[in-house]
Design a protein that fits this description.
Elements (H helix, E strand, L loop, with lengths): L1 H11 L2 E4 L3 H9 L6 E5 L2 E8 L4 E5 L1 H18 L1
Antiparallel strand pairs: 1-4, 2-3, 3-4
Helix pairs in contact: 1-3
């Protein structure tokens, strides 16, 4: 499930950001697992998906989220 989600996030344009410092790793672990969460930073909305096992965060904005949702819907229709 998570690998499929991460593949679709990447295809949708989400960027992969590595958590390099202990503070970044702590923030990564604090996010809800297996869920895209909206966060605000510098007045902008970002959508993030943590992968604690790989120590990375998938980061996108509204357009990347919409791309991901369309890809997921298309894949779900194709598998049914």
């Amino acid at each position: 499930m998570t690998q499929r989600t991460e593949d679709l996030l990447s295809q949708g344009g989400f960027k992969i950001v590595r958590a390099n410092t202990p503070a970044q790793q702590a923030r990564l672990r604090a996010l809800p697992a297996n869920r895209i969460t909206m966060v605000q930073r510098d007045g902008k909305e970002y959508f993030v998906f943590p992968d604690v096992s790989q120590n990375v965060l998938y980061v996108g904005q509204k357009s990347e989220l919409q791309n991901y949702q369309e890809l997921r819907a298309a894949q779900d229709l194709g598998s049914g």
